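Class, look over these structure tokens:
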Amino acid sequence: MTKNILLVLLVMAILACGLLVVDSYVIGNEDNTNEKALKESIINKCTEYKTIGLNELTPFEWDQVYSFPPYMDKDSMSKMSGIPEGDLSETYNEGTMNIVFLKEKEVVCKIVGYPKEFYLSIGDLKYENNERLLISKLPTKNDKTIVLNIYKGGDLKLLEEGNYLNENMVGYWERTIEEENINEINQKYINMILTKDGVVKFNFFYSLYKDNTDIQNLHKAGSKSSIQAFNRDNSKYMIEDGEIRLKYYKDRFRIKIDLKGESSILNGEYELVKK
């Protein structure tokens, strides 16, 4: 049963992060100096939960970056970006990165595939060099990958600058719940990343089984994620957006979830544990 639970949670977590490990390697051309330098910069600078400017991570000059989705052909990519087809690569697996940095319309760095050291989950758009990224996963003993998500919120203030946080709040929090009803088992997995500059990333997963938790009895599963800055103006709730209420009390976070539709299966009030 434990193996089934872990398998379902792993698949949903991968999907929620927008990545699927289909290859243990690829960073374009391994001989490219800028690609190597970017990898080393991410490893050296992404050592704690915080947001960081994309331009802070790139040890080379650039003025535009494109992130292309899987299955897009070179002709479509070229028409969208103006990049010559000869400088582009096509990808054929969900979650595969295909990111191209430009300087004055010339390619200066290209990341294609899934490098084991990092994953940039920035969507399928064009970006300028003032974008900020949320460090949402740090290396662990069993998984060395650093995950960064695009952050579209406003200006933030670091812990050291006085932003109402303390060291105990910052980090990775989670809760796993299993509820049994007649002929039905509902497993919920809730995790939260709180950065030192006050950004919160939530990941909610559920799996509903009939009779028992054998994988063949999985009836349905789903997930929901969100990224937002905590509320500095309300002393009671750090997050209050109509769907999520988050408060900190006696060294613990309590979260109240009130979602609509199929995701309402996750609704309830839970105490999170720091990992």
